[in-house]
Structure formats: C-alpha cells, structure tokens
Amino acid sequence: MDDNKKKQWTENTIFLVVILGCGLGVDNTYYLQIMTFIGINTLLALGLNMLMGYAGQVSLGHAAFYGIGAYTTAILSGTYGISPWAALVCAVSCAVFIAFVVGLPTLKLSGYYLGMGTLGFGMIVNILFREWSTVTGGSSGFVGIPMLEAGPVSFMSGRNYFFLVWMVVLVAVLLCRRILSSRMGRALRSIHDGENASLAVGVNTHFLKLQIFMFSAALGAVAGFLYAHFVMFISPESFGFMVSVKMVTMVVIGGMASVWGALLGASLLTLLPEVLHGFAEYEMIIFGLILMVVMIFMPQGLTRGLLDIYEHSRKRDKRHGN
Amino acid sequence: MQEIIQYLFSGITTGAIYAVIAVGLSMLYSSTELINFAHGEFVMLGAMAIVTLWVHMALPLPLAFAGAVALGCCMGLLFERLAIRTARTPQPIVLVIITVGASIFLRGVAMIVWGKDPFSVPAFSRHDSIEIAGAALLPQSIWIVGAAVLLAGGIHFFLKKTLTGKAMVACAVNKKAAWLTGIPSEKMGILAFAVSTGSGAVAGIFIAPITMSSYDMGTMLGLKGFCAAMIGGLGSLWGAFAGGILLGVLESLGAGLISSGLKDAIAFILLLLILYICPGGLFSAKEAKRF
Amino acid sequence: MVTDSVKAFSKQSLGSCDIECPKDITRSHDILNVRNLTKMFGGVTAQDDISFSIEPGIVCGLIGPNGAGKTTLFNMITGIYRPDSGQVLFNGRPTRKMAVHQLVRAGIARTFQHVELFGSMTLLENVLVGMHVRTKSGFWGAVTRMPWVMREERRAREKAMDLLEFTGLTQYAHRPAGDLPVGRQKMAEIARALASEPKLLLLDEPAAGLNPVETEALGKLIQRVKERAVTMMLVEHDMSLAMGISDKVIVLDRGKKLAEGSPREVQNNQAVMEAYLGRG
C-alpha cells in the first residue's frame, strides 16, 4: 500500500518538475504552442481513458463534448460578453447534462451497438455546429473568442497559457487517480473485467457507466474551453468524426487503463502530424500505417508493448549470459 | 405531388447505393463478425478506378467495370491478409482501430494517386431521362437500382444456396465447429472480405456518375452504409437492403421538404432512434444484447 | 447463540416440510419462497411450475442432471432473468420489481459455476468490490476524500482482510485474482460473495474443478459459513458433498421439481433413482 503511495508521489513530483522545466526552459513560441496542444489532448485522452480503459465502454463520438465545451464558451463569452470563467461553468454543466441525457439510453447498449450509438450522437452534434450558423458561425467557424484573464494575470502569452493548461492536466490526473483508488474506481474496473459478475455482486453498472460518461464529458468540455480560448477561432472540423477517432486512438495507442498512457498517446498523436508536415502529401499514409502497425503488433498500446519488448530482450540477454 | 415523386426517385437512387454499401458491410459482419470502418474507402476506390479506367483510359465500359471491381476485391484480399489476419489479439476494439487506420491509409494513397480535385463521370447510357407523372427519372437511376437488386440477390443466393456460401455462414456462427467439420475457415474469411469489398467497389462505380468523385468521398458513404445496416438489423442482408432504401428516401424527402442542411443528420437521428427503440433493427427478429 | 436456535428451528421445520408441502401456504419465517416459477427460452421450457421454500439457517442442496435448470433457477432468484410467470419472495417480499443490485443489497449473493473473479484486480480489491452495497462513498467522496470516506475505506479493508483470513486466502491478498490456482479462485468467489453480508448465499457448483482435499476444505468452509447464520443453496454434482452438507435437498429434472426432502428421503425416492440411474 505504502509503496504504491510513494511511487505515485514520485511520479507526480517528476511530472511537476518536467512541466516546470518545459515551461520555463523552452522559449520557442512554436514549441510552447505544441506542448500546450499536447496538454489539451491529454485532458481529452484522460477523460476517454476513464470510460474506455477502466469501464470498458467505447465512445466513437467523444469529440462532441470537446466541441460542446468549446462552442458554449465561445458563444457565451464571444457573443454575449459573459466572463469566460462563468462560461466555463456553463460549458461543463452543459456537457455533463447532455452526457446524462444521451448516456441514459446509449450506455444500455454494448459492443458495436454502443460504438455506433456514440458515433451517431457525435455526428449529430457536429452537424448542428455546422448548420446552426446564426449561433455557431456555421462551417466557416466562430471568430472573436476573447482571451483569458484572471485578475492581473493575462494568458495572452504562450508561457502562461502553457502553465494554465498543464496545471489543469495535473489536477485532472490527481482526480482520476483518486477516483480509481476509491470504491467507485474499483467498481468501475470490475465492469471492465466482467460486467456480469460486477452486476451480480451488486454494482449498479448502468448508473456507474453513466457517472463516468458524465465525468469524461466534463473533462472533454474543459479541454474544449481551453482549446477555444487558446486558438480563439473554432470551426466544426475541429470536433468531427476524425477527431473522435483520434481521441480513441490516443487512448489505445498510449495503452488503455493507464494514466500515463493517456499522456503518451496524446503526445504522439499531437507530435506526429507536426513531424509529418515535412512529408506533406504522405502524412495520411504514414499516420494510417502507424495506427495499423501499432494495433496489429502491440494491441495493448505502446506503453505496455515497449515494456514487453524491453523485458523480453532483458530475459534473452540473461539467458545468453548464463 | 410532382415534387414528392421527384424526391422519391432521387431518394430511391441514393438509397440503392446505400443499400449496396450496407449489404457489403452486413455480409462481412455475418460471416466474420467484423465491422469494417474502411468499407467506405473501397466505395471510393471503385469510383476512382472507373474514373481512370473508363474516363481517362477510355476502356470499354464492361472492361472498366470488371477492372474496378477486381481492384476492390484485390485490395480487400490484401487488407485481410496484411492487416486483419496478422492482428495479435483480434478483439473488436483492436480490429475497429485497425480498419480505421486502413481507411486513413487508403484515403492517403488515393490522394496521392488521384490528387485532391474531384472528378465527374458521364452517365453510363446516353438516353434521355424518362418522365413519369411530371418527374424526371434518370436512366442512371434505373441502372443503379437494377444493379443493387442484382447484387443483393446474388449475395443472397451465394450465402443461402451454394455450399461455399453456407460454409461461410457456418464459420460466422461457430468458427471452431466449422473448422472441425472440415471447412477451411481461414479461406472463408478471405473470400468474405473479397466479396464485401468488391461489392463496395460496385457501389462506387454506380455512384460516380451522379456525384463528384474525390479521394475523401468514402467516409460519409461508409458511415451512412453503417446506419442503413443498423436500421435493417446488423447481419441481415435484406434488412440492410431495405434499410438502405429507407434511409435514401427519408434523406431525400427530409432534404427537400425540411432543410437541405439537415440531410446528413437524418441518417444518424434514425440510427439513434433504432438503437434506442429496437436495437436489433427494424427487419430482424434477433435482439441485441442489452444486458 | 442465534445460530443454535436457528438450527434447532430448521430441523423442526424440516420434518413438517416434505414432498407434499402445499404451495399456497406462505409461512412468513421462510427466507425464500419460490412459487410456480416458469421460464421459457424460445420454445424450450427451462423451468416448469417450480415451487419450494427455504427456511432460514439451512443449507439446501439443489441437484439434478445436466440441463435440469439449476443455474436458470439461480439466475431467476438473483434477478438476472425475469420469470415468465410465478414469483419469488425473499423474506416475504416479492422480488419481481427489484434490480439485481437491489437484491444484493437486500441480502442475496451468489457465486458462479465458472469462476468470474475480476482477473486484473487483486484479491483484496475483489472482496472490496463485493462490499460495494455495504459501503457508501461515491464520486464526490472519491474526489474530496473526506474523513468519513477514509474511515469507511479503512474499515472496509479491515473487514476484507478478515474475510480473506476466514477463507484462508490471506497470503494471496495482493495478488491479481486471475493468477490464483482454480481451487483458490473458487474460495475467493465465496469470500467476495460473503463481503456483501448476504442472508442467502447461492453457490453454483462450488466443488467443480476441485481435488478431493480442496473439496473437503470447501465442505468445512460451508459449515463455518452456516455457523454465521447464512442460509445457503448449492448446486452440486459431487453427491457426497451435497448429501453430506445439506439439511434439505431439492431435485430438479428437465425444468421440473422431482423431489424435495432430507438427503435420506431423496436418496430413497423412486423418481430420483430413475432420473439418475434409470435413463443412464
């Protein structure tokens, strides 16, 4: 028990040090920007990971909550001039409420049916963003999202925004950790291991799935909020089907049921397109290939896959040594 | 009235396309229990191949048609061999992501081969449109509906009446038992893939003359195909067919009478309604697991 | 003390409840009443008009050839299947409208024929999940870690360790449940089921896959569980175990109740002998 706690403390400390190091050490605006995007994507992956990795429920429409967060804050603070922080509260409540209404019938489904249900929901929300142009600006996007300010601190500078995003990530990581080590987290993991047994020992699986769906929607909305005020321009494409797929991919590639896996997956999927920019035309081919190859050969994700390879080679070395 | 008939005509036409896509998906599901998220890309490949073979290389239409279908089948074979069969743990979620990866990959390849610009393809026959009750019926529509019925009928005949087809269904029901009775279940999987992607290519060939063809046309078509398959009941061939037609008609009516912007949403709203109310699909008695 | 009186009581009532026990008389002291239960799957009748009742504190064996409908019966008592007709009363209250988790809270727990532990979680965590209905903290509790939540967690862990000790599994507490040998997994399932503080415990073939030594240990464990005033029903194919440990035996065959009574009565029952031997 205590070993585990100590390990978590060291992990968190290292994480904090790395954030501080990156934030203070990096001066290049472009790099700071990329790292901020990694943070936003990590939030998305963390939320979805709770649902997919721990509760074992697939969602192919999670970008909807990301978009709901972004559009709510954009409309409230951009069009109506409400303080972004109040808009944040509205955005999160809105996403949580929608997750509740949609999750109630959808989470009764399982397997492919659940996948299709969430996909359908995601598509409908995206079409709404595109077609409700008087409010959302339609397919040409929403312009004029104000920047964030908190008293004397302006988040105009890349560095400040970087810290804001990563502090939110840190809090989210701690929250997820707390949930996972609690009664609720255990029940959640039990659904993943065997839903029938979980039901039979008295876990209200449907309610629990709904709760975690709402939680991951909230994280998605927070990510959407941060994204909207960071780029100050949003359009429906940023929240479409491919984004939902990307989110799933982050979770799966990083490794399901691992908080750090979400970070790894988010980093990879954010960096990859940037690196592949050099290949311009070949970007999609390479992206698709990587996705397939990782899934074919390391279905538990890169984190576990690479560890396996490392352990395997170490074993072999030992045998050779003997 | 005249308007409504016109909407019906165009709805049945696109519906037939959806039906062919849905039948391909449904057939693959009923013989391998796999949902292929790259199916729409095979539709795109069929359309792009007919652009190259018929429009650019000016091959005779039947030859171009055969070439495009063959391309679809071959790519399906390759896909099954290289990506699906090699998967270490064939769990649904892993396979789904592999097919999503394949769909991105295929789109990337198509973008390099055919570029980003859309192409248009002339109608297959140069007859004038027929007028029925004041609404114009394009000859291409007749082609499409005829082809859809033929294709679905063919696949139905294959699965229900031929030994190979029955063996394929047996593999889906219980792979191990099928293998024990001497059915080469692996070969059946490949065959199912080839037939499914080939039928996808057929859908692409027929849709090419009524829309613009480009490298990114597949995703939406594939998703609509899913909706159709789900509406009809996953794994039921005629259910998928009927689902496709129904979806096409409702979309066309919705776009015409309510708002064209909501056209794409109709498929997904229908999908959600079906999933919530009768998750087994409209035309299937089998109940989905809702435990 | 309580147990003794329950035991004495159940022995008394056993005498009065033999094969011809009238169906329509509800005795409020029965922990479980099953009345005219019928369940069809497609065209197959899995349960055909089954009625019986279980007195508190006893061990009731449920035997019958394969396909007799024993597991189906369990699934209906635990609320996983809804009966087509008939009803189940638990402590005199009908269970038809209760969800599975509500029944667990009311005091019905079960184990599975094929072990269904949560394989990736440690044994301790498995037992803690078993305690789910007896603990309260939810999302906000987990996030805020209020003192009462931490207290509850500490108490739950202590109780879970006690249960592991009770079932002789202390040494495996921090091992993933999936890594345990089958015999231990069977015991672990009982520990997990006990964690919900059941009044009625349904054991589905607890001895399947156990060697003779483990089976004997299981028998002793069941005896000790009984001393905790937990009523049990067990489906079992190991006749020496089932007959040795049960106060009362119900025989099912092809969805019908064939006989009910003390082990001795059942063993001498003509219909039972035919079902087991006659058709062999």
UniProtKB/TrEMBL annotation, chain A:
PROSITE patterns: PROKAR_LIPOPROTEIN. Keywords: Cell membrane, Membrane, Transmembrane, Transmembrane helix. Its main location: membrane. It is a multi-pass membrane protein. It comes from the Bacteria. GO terms for cellular component: plasma membrane. InterPro entries: ABC_transp_permease, LivM-like. One of its GO terms (molecular function) is branched-chain amino acid transmembrane transporter activity. This is Amino acid/amide ABC transporter membrane protein 2, HAAT family. It comes from Desulfocicer vacuolatum DSM 3385.
UniProtKB/TrEMBL annotation, chain B:
It is found in: Cell membrane. It is a multi-pass membrane protein. GO terms for cellular component: plasma membrane. Keywords: Amino-acid transport, Cell membrane, Membrane, Transmembrane, Transmembrane helix, Transport. InterPro entries: ABC_transp_permease (IPR001851), BCAA_transport_permease (IPR052157). One of its GO terms (molecular function) is transmembrane transporter activity. The chain crosses the membrane at residues 6-30, 65-84, 93-115, 135-159, 190-210, 230-253, 265-285. One of its GO terms (biological process) is amino acid transport. Belongs to the binding-protein-dependent transport system permease family. LivHM subfamily. This is Amino acid/amide ABC transporter membrane protein 1, HAAT family. It comes from Desulfocicer vacuolatum DSM 3385.
From TrEMBL, chain C:
GO terms for cellular component: plasma membrane. Residues 32-279 form the ABC transporter domain. It comes from the Bacteria. InterPro entries: AAA+_ATPase (IPR003593), ABC_AA/LPS_Transport (IPR051120), ABC_transporter-like_ATP-bd (IPR003439), BCA_ABC_TP_C (IPR032823), P-loop_NTPase (IPR027417). Pfam families: ABC_tran (PF00005), BCA_ABC_TP_C (PF12399). GO terms for molecular function: ATP binding; ATP hydrolysis activity; L-isoleucine transmembrane transporter activity; L-phenylalanine transmembrane transporter activity; L-valine transmembrane transporter activity. Keywords: ATP-binding, Nucleotide-binding, Transport. Gene3D superfamilies: P-loop containing nucleotide triphosphate hydrolases. This is Amino acid/amide ABC transporter ATP-binding protein 1, HAAT family. GO terms for biological process: D-alanine transmembrane transport; L-alanine transport; L-isoleucine import across plasma membrane; L-valine import across plasma membrane.
